[in-house]
Amino acid sequence: MKRTRSLFTLVGFLALGSVGIAQAGELVVWHAYRAEEKAAFEKVAKAYEATKPGTTVTLLAIPYDAFADKITAAVPRGKGPDVFIFAQDKLGGWIEAGNTVEPIDFYLDEPTKARFIPTTMEAMTYRGTVYGLPMNYKAITLIYNKKLVTAPPKTDVELVALAKKLTDKGAGRFGLAYSYADYWYHASLQNAFGGRVFDAGAPVLNNPENVKAALFLQKWIKEGFLPAEPSTALVTSLFNEGKAAIVFSGSWFLGEIAKGVDYGLAPLPTIAEAGGKPMRPWMTVEGMYVAAPSKQKDLAYDFVKFVTDVKAATVMAVEGRQNPANKKAYEDPKVGKDPILAAFRAQAEVAIPTPNVPEMTMVWSPATTAMNTITRGTSPQAALDKAQAQLLKDVAGLRKRP
Amino acid sequence: MGRPSHRLRFAVGLALAGGLGVGVAHLLLKNEVQQASVAREERKGVVALQALADLVERAGRRGEGIRRAVSAWQGANPSVRLARVVAFEGISLEASTAPEDQGDKAAPRRLSRDEKSLYDLGQRLRTAVTTNREEGGARKEEIEISTTHAGALALAAPVTEDGAVVGIVTVETQPLAAPARPSLLYAILAWAGPLVLFVLLALLVGERRAWLAAVAVSCLALGFGAYAAHSLARVEQERIRSHEAVAEFALAQAGTVRAVLSDLGLAATPPLVPSAWDADAFRRPRGFLTESGKLDEARLRTNADAASGQALRALILAGVVALGLLLAIGLGGVHRVAAALVANRQAYYYVVPAMIGMIVLVFFPFIYGITLSFTDSNLYSVNQPITETWIGLRNYGDILGDVGIAQRAADGSLVFNYLNFYWTLLYTVVWTVTNVTAGVTVGLLLALILNTKGLAGKPIYRVLLIMPWAMPNYITALIWKGMFHRQYGVVNHVIRLFGGQGVSWFEKPFTSFLTALATNGWLSFPFMMVVSLGALQSIPGEIYEAARVDGASRWQQFRAITLPSLKPALVPAVILSVIWTFNMFNIPYLVTQGEPGSSTEILVTQSYKFAFERYRYGYAAAYSTIIFGILLVYGAIQNRVSKATEAI
């Protein structure tokens, strides 16, 4: 009895110890992957262990909803992993909170930096310092129903004409459907006009380009080819029922498309009123970061370098269905000739990384309110002025020292 | 137990209280002296560091000249153990006087892997300078000071060229000497003296409690007051010593830098400004030195008042606590509590586990939330200790003091400020009243219908009517939200069937409110129905028979028999429903999401959004405490009122 009890305590302590920061030659990695992505990532980790005998890489899958909070709570207290994978939107906040993400400028050399699509590298940089290496990116692009649309539109004039032809409001059919009231989706239109949220750290929600983009959206809504009050659920169901010919969405949408719908992808159209500039969607870049309290920083960085290298990126792309941030991965025909991956790669050329500054988290609330009033027809200047005032107040409340 | 000895109690009380008071004051003094000593060394370190940075910038930041300058400067500063200059370009160590950086590890060279922390320190300082400049404030520290294992100070400051940070200088002092400790003799004297005095006086006064109390309090005041005055004087002395030492040091540094510059053949233009070297962590000059490096007497005096004010407050607090302890012991309070604990030992043993559970799970989070409401905690400052973010009642002032619910716009119409606390409070009250009324009315109506004798299929109806309550209300909220969609929603579909035009439900505050009311009404009537049904079935049928025989109409029967019998069941249900509806988070959050423009938020959803969408944790905690206060007052009033109705 005593022996089994002490055995249990020993096992218990070992188990406790293995979840946190690991011993020499051991890495603990946290991620939020499921299904195919998880399987592909486990394959990559095993490949790494093969290149470095004596090293063990322990992967821990954590549900996405709780992931960010767990990192915020566990890592600064030294109870987190050595490496973790997350999008760049919380990066600024974690850096400001301190002791969460390790800067990797010191290890980074030019050849490593040059392997990535430049905009994805930008997403990993905060105030001039690089904090992680990009793994993959997500951006919205044009998805169309091949049965209703033979040639996807290249300019907005073509888009409007095609959409109007395919719209029948009474029957509930629309030419174009996307969550235009969601500020993240609207940013693709806004960026075409040269609009932006921050100018050298200062919020500029109500600058003239943003107002122009909002007026342009109102014009689209008035033409009548967009459904009212679009939610992602509505857009998905309309597309699956064949009631929406064209949809602006990303790779997460592809998994929701019904079996019988033959779909194609194309780059977002250019906007004539913006001087022929293309619609530039915001890109969410998933990066691998080294945790600041890690005791294995060199080994962790080595692992990060391995996972973002060509061979591993190809595996993640082909088996995990991710869009790799590594340029060279597209030279492999399995990746480069895949219609979906190639389409998103073409879109990535004009995509802009979502700002990773901590103040970005303050933007969503006033921006959503502004978008809701703008899509109902109120003056964009007034709505954006109000959002700007609210944002300035929220940011000031965050930055002031007592 | 014999008769209590007041003299003994007061003597014990004075001993303990005096010990506590003088002990705390002594600890405070020791702490102050230690902090003053460390602060003095830090200031001198910063002066040396800034002088070196100035020297490096004037000598060209790179090259052989820098190395000569740094070693010359080090030679003239025996209190500094080593100095290093790091340039970002090429990640190189430009100059170093560290004993380990000799031979093949001599500067200039690239930083090695285990010197990564030095490079990261440089990047941090560079980011701090850019951030402060961009924000126009002083949020991030531009000089980092830390203590090494050996007890020395390590300081780092940025080196700029044409406004951009191109590198850093780091300086490590010799291990600091232990600060002088205030003598224990005064403390013991301040404790023992009053005690002896009290014992002598007590012999004179006898057993009269009031007199003894007065004597004990004055003895305590005497001893504690004397020690407090001594402490304050000592602290002031230390302060002046610090300023004088730093001024002297700054003048010496200016001399050193001038000498090194002339050694290198460089003129000291623009002229050196030693007063700028005595700076805080944001490189803002403290202002105690004049341009020439002498002490500024006027500034010294104004600073004195601020510093002593804080020390005085701490001492007063200690004094009050000591006084409280004296009176508690002397007047017999402590004795009574101890006696009660001992007499009811068994009971306390049973209660302790539950008490511990309650304290950990209920009281601690509750107290933490209230403490958080007095701070300015937000996304940036989560890791800072509470004492640094303390702002007192400012959050409450911001919430309750903002009475601007509406303004007149240019065209004369009223524009409401939907984020205002009073608007949200008004809306929450309206929401609660309408919902409870709707729920009770519909529930009562259905209960009356279900209660008719001989109704066929009663069990089926009961099950169907309970369903809204049984389904998870998260899902029903989302379904109802879909039903109110402008184009595809069922509600507008039905309106169009009857020839009307669909309503854009979430466009105006009133229609948005109606959607939430409909959803919550649907969800809340089953509970009221069940309560009413239960109460109705307990009313004996003979009373109705008697009333009918007496010729009462159905309405009179309802008013005279049914309603009063329902009261004992309905009143608790209504109280519960009011509190649940007041705090009903799901429906406003999921159905209207506060649209349009936060006008249909209730207090709890507004508090949630302040905490988790605007990341102002302190403000949201204050909001939640106010909600608790409102419900507490309501509960107290309701209790009193319902006791009156139970008497009927």
What does this structure look like?
The complex is a heterodimer of chains A (402) and B (648). Chain A has 402 residues and is of the alpha/beta class. Chain A has 17 helices and 16 strands. In chain A, strand 13 and strand 14 form a beta hairpin. The longest helix of chain A is centred in the last third of the chain and has 20 residues. The mean pLDDT of chain A is 89. In chain B, strand 1 and strand 2 form a beta hairpin. Chain B is flat and about 120 Å long. Chains A and B meet through helix 4, helix 16 and helix 17 of A and helix 3 of B.
Condensed summary:
The complex is a heterodimer of chains A (402) and B (648). Chain A has 402 residues and is of the alpha/beta class.
The average pLDDT of chain B is 87
Structural class of chain A: alpha/beta
CA-based gyration radius of chain A: 23 Å
Radius of gyration computed on alpha carbons of chain B: 37 Å
Shape of chain B: flat
Number of helices of chain A: 17
Tally of DSSP helical segments of chain B: 20
Which protein chains are joined by the largest interface, and how many residues does each one contribute?
Answer: A-B, 43 and 44 residues
Strand order of the largest sheet of chain B: 3-2-1-6-5-4
Report helical residue fraction of chain A.
40-55%
- First-last Cα distance of chain A: 59 Å
Secondary-structure-based class of chain B equals: alpha+beta
- Beta content of chain B comes to 5-15%
Give the averaged pLDDT of chain A, no decimals: 89
- Biggest sheet architecture of chain B: 6 strands, antiparallel
